[in-house]
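User: Before I run my own analysis I want an independent prediction to cross-check against. Here's the chain; please return only the structure tokens and, at the end, one sentence I can use as a sanity check.
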Amino acid sequence: MFIKNKLKYSIWKTPFFLIKSFLVLIKLTKAGALIPLSNIDFFPKKLKFAIKIINFFLYKNDKANIGITILHCLIKLGPGFVKFGQALSTRPDLIGIEISDHLKKLQDDVKPFSGLIAKDIVEKETKSLINDVFISFDQTPIASASIAQVHIGILKNGEKVAVKILKPQIEKLLFNDFRFFYWVSKCIELFIPKIKRLKLSKTVEVFSNISLIELDLTMEASAADELAENFKNHLNYRVPKIYWDLTTKRILVLEYIEGIKIDDISALKKQKHNIEKITEVATEVFFLQVFRDGFFHGDMHPGNIFIDRNGTLVPIDFGIMGRLKNQDRQFLALLLTYLLDKNYKKVVEIHAEANMLGNDVSYEQLAQAIRAISTPILNKPIGEISLAKLLGQILGLSKTYNIEIQSQFSLLQKTMLMAEGIARQLRPETNMWELSRPLINKWINETDDPFKTLEEWIHKNKIILLKFPEIIEKIEKIISKK
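Assistant: Structure tokens:
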């Protein structure tokens, strides 16, 4: 609710947003950004037709360079659009592999700000001269994304660290973009009522909330700390050390990881790492984060996961993290299990039990539609099956069958696509969902335990239960007075 209130706009801003939306639409169309949108299945036919008409009159460039032109356009439009491009880069099923590959550069290859400015920010935040904190501080960043860039430093005790620094004025720039996105989503929902079930404005809220939390690097440090706590006993997965005494809202100092990116297969083989074991560990870690903890790394692209010299998986960049309630995890576990079993009636039933279907929906027709989109995907060779893509296809049925879109699954689906992509790059013949299926089944059985459910209820309501004798005593006093 807090972020929603902040995103609300004043009526007097509407003319400004109208002009801005017109200019942005022209720029995006000329760059070719609307071309992949015209092929998205769940868009209404009238909207797709309108997009094609706009493209016909405004897009004049060579389609061979469309990925590059979209990349440059998003960077020029501002950090909010860069964040949007980062999210799109994980959806090759929507925008195509070539465009996706170009947009991946937005993850760590955006033009950096001056190293001298970075040095000044560090000195202001630590309230110390740079030479009093570091033996050396490299003013050339090793990575630069939409909201921050990363520098290497060596502390006075000789430890090598990565220093993440927020870009100047990023809060104002990013928030202005998100207010504009929120306004656009509300206008779309107002003028195209059928698209309301996609919950665009709610998705913007969630996306904005996650991104704005990134602007407080102590929150990122806290997320890393929580993830480290969850995996403190795991032998093959660890989180870098956080230097809390040097970390502030604008800078984050953490252990520098010497390792190989998880998708650099040739380098991993050269160092004689066990690719099969890495695949199994990555799958297990994904399961544990999503189902056991309900707290998962929401930006799991290959550049954010390293393999150290011991073969341990080490994640970096904890700015985007996702959470799922227990009931959402139970729904997801059953959904994945029923899809793998090709039990489409059960898939429909759990949607109904979660109150995600309209009153006039034919369960038999919906089950048949899910079978129609599932069969081509599930009948593929084992290494090509994509449950993340299948979930996207099921969401695409929302318009026809009045399925209520659950915004909390938006980030998860993006993460699932990344996890599948990593598993497929490591071992193309492996299906990560079959690997995690025994873990999912075990988790479902454990969460169905009535005694465990009772234990969780008691834990959540222990304050009320402790006060119960006091409440009874007060009731007795009231009755005795009468």
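Sanity check: The chain has a mean pLDDT of 82.
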